[in-house]
Write a structure and sequence with these properties.
The chain is about 0% helix and about 65% strand. The protein is an all-beta fold and about 150 residues long. Strand 2 and strand 3 form a beta hairpin.
Length: about 150
């Protein structure tokens, strides 16, 4: 529990996204974002709201901890697409890196998806999203957020 205490507060971030996902592309574009996060239920839950002002949308993540399994479930919703189900599920390792995985569909293609939290310090953090369309044999990182505490 309390694994997401590091993200509580207000942040700015640089977003990098692939223009074409699952196409072997290396054409990235950048844009800014601002976010704020807070704990709920004494740290057994965490919420963040993020705004992408130049992209015309915003999003929210709800993270819930299950003390029985010691796993987090991460739910993402966007003002463009609504709630993404099922949640990404996982935990932080002893190295401080968090990996949260689930199955999804991208552009009609069934995919495996990972959300990865790393490089966590009191003033910064990194989040990455990666997809696999071949059952996890190969992975493509398609979205990277580098956070700086505001």
């Amino acid at each position: 529990m309390n694994n997401f205490d590091f993200i509580v507060g207000t942040w700015t971030s640089t977003q990098r996204r692939l223009r074409k996902v699952l196409a072997g592309s290396d054409d990235w574009y950048e844009f800014p974002a601002t976010s704020r996060a807070w704990n709920v239920m004494g740290g057994a839950g965490n919420v963040d709201e993020i705004d992408f002002p130049t992209q015309g949308f915003s999003g929210v993540t709800l993270r819930l901890y299950d003390p029985g399994t010691q796993l987090w479930s991460l739910y993402w919703a966007s003002s463009r697409t609504g709630l993404t189900l099922p949640p990404m599920v996982g935990r932080f390792g002893e190295d401080g890196r968090g990996v949260f995985s689930g199955d999804d569909v991208y552009d009609g293609v069934p995919i495996a998806c990972n959300y990865i939290w790393s490089r966590i310090t009191p003033e910064s953090a990194r989040w990455e999203q990666e997809f696999s369309a071949d059952g996890g044999q190969t992975w493509e990182t398609n979205w990277v957020m580098d956070f700086t505490r505001a």
